[in-house]
Amino acid sequence: MQGPIVKLGSRRFLSLHLILEGIIIGLLVGLATSIFRLFIAMSAAPIRLFIERAQNSYAYAALALLVMCIFGLITAQIVKFEPMISGSGIPQVSAQLQGRIQVLWHKTLLAKMLGSLFTLGSGLTLGREGPSVQIGGMIGDGVSHIAKRSETERRYLLTAGSAAGLASAFNAPLAGAMFALEELHKNFSPTVLVLAMVSAYSSVFLAGTVLGTDPVVKVFQFQALDLSMYWAVILIGIITGLSGVLFNKSILGSKLFFSKLAIPKTLKLVIPFAISAIFIIISPNLFGSGLNLMFLDIDAANTSRSIGSLFFLLLIKFFLLLIAFGSGLPGGLFFPLLVLGALEGNIIAHIGMNFGLVNTNTALIFIILAMCGHLSSIVRSPLTAILLVFELTGSLSFMLPLGIVSLVAYFTAELLGSRPIYASLQDMIPGIDHDLPKKTSEGHTSRSNVLVEFSVEPNSVADGKMIRDLGMPTGLMIVSLSRGSSQFFPGGSIVLQGDDFLECLIPEDKLSEYVRFMEGIVGEQNSSEAHLHYKERFFSKKEKH
């Protein structure tokens, strides 16, 4: 029996109530993430006090180490209670949207907030942004369940909450909305864009009333970069592109190392607390995600820090991130990878200063550019990287070099064949399934249909082909085609063109498999794993016949 479908004739009403729900979700997410950030700051204060006293007392050092290990034991129990809170949370949200996993929103929401509170409040090298995205996503999911919305609307509200979570974590509404399109939906959807922006701005508004509206990263006033220095912009893009590839390989390697480590899971999660405590006691400036490390010694009076010491600091901070994230503790990658990018830019700036090629103003810009390039190459979302760094710093003075460095870093990572980090991490989620039907929380296979949007890429498999020649699997239906300003129901004889926008009804129990099918035929040729999946799975069947 065919399940319920979304009637296109009710689209206007659907949009209006979605926008209202998006505002509600944004306000709830803003409140939740504000409370989350306040509690992190409150829990970090006594740990910092222990660390300060441990500088001159072995007894306090031992006590600080003991407290950190106890926090590790507690966090391990929380992760055991809800394994889906492990790591960033962004891959889990993306997998939910693709129908590859099912979670209980209230259980995940509570566990993520508590688990991340212990990891971030203890000063581990992890970020609050990934947890904020998952917290926001669970709030959006919860609103959809409480309001008894359809599966299609649930996906929209889940995305809206995720965008609001990133936006409130950084005070960056535009980056939050763009992140929803680039990273979560992987295509342009007007519905998702509007809903994500409504939720993102609502969350930032509420979070701003509680925590203030200052940029997360405060920088001094500086002049625009001289055009004669744009060779350095390209160089920074290449360097951060290469380091982004190394970052991704190292993160995945650390996950693999901990998965093969033949010790109890609880001990795996305590080890990062113990190791981080030792390093923080030795050097307190290693506490937390690393905001204090972004602009070391970049001023006219003090450029004496050696390049070697900066490089050593970069390696130590990276090591602490690898053990914390690789173990599976709840916590994000976003801010730590920005800090590592800033340290790279700091090193490049100090080299230029030593040779008299760079002044203080240019050095500051180099650091900001390196942050953008590092994010773009790792996450592979260049527009999000540009908007995020712009909103973090609150300056329009260097949008052109930001765009250049983001694209150069992006293409450097692409040429080296590095996958986006969250796509790789999604495949490592325990129990994730690519093809089998998913069960609802009640244990029944869902029979409803989901409205999913796709954009036809130029030179894709579908470009220039009739719909009836695409070998569409049973149950997958294109219900709307938008071309320019026109929107119509396409028949089988319609020839698809690059930049067409399709809305498809997909049975919920086939969501993961059919989304991969559609991505394979509408995505770029020779660059998509989904395309290879399409060729192997569907063209081979035709050849046999």
Question: What keyword list fits this structure?
Answer:
single chain; mainly alpha; disordered N terminus; 62% helix; 545 residues; four-stranded antiparallel sheet
Question: Secondary-structure blueprint of this entry?
Answer:
Elements: H1 11-54, H2 58-81, H3 90-97, H4 105-121, H5 129-146, H6 151-170, H7 173-185, H8 190-211, H9 230-260, H10 265-282, H11 307-326, H12 334-354, H13 360-379, H14 382-393, H15 399-415, H16 421-427, E1 449-455, E2 477-483, E3 486-488, E4 501-507, H17 511-522, H18 529-544
Antiparallel strand pairs: 1-4, 2-3, 2-4
Helix pairs in contact: 1-2, 1-4, 1-5, 1-6, 1-8, 2-4, 2-10, 3-6, 3-16, 4-5, 5-6, 6-7, 6-8, 7-8, 7-14, 9-11, 9-13, 9-15, 11-12, 12-13, 13-14, 13-15, 14-15, 17-18
In short:
The protein has helices at 11-54, 58-81, 90-97, 105-121, 129-146, 151-170, 173-185, 190-211, 230-260, 265-282, 307-326, 334-354, 360-379, 382-393, 399-415, 421-427, 511-522, 529-544, and strands spanning 449-455, 477-483, 486-488, 501-507. The chain is mostly helical and 545 residues long.
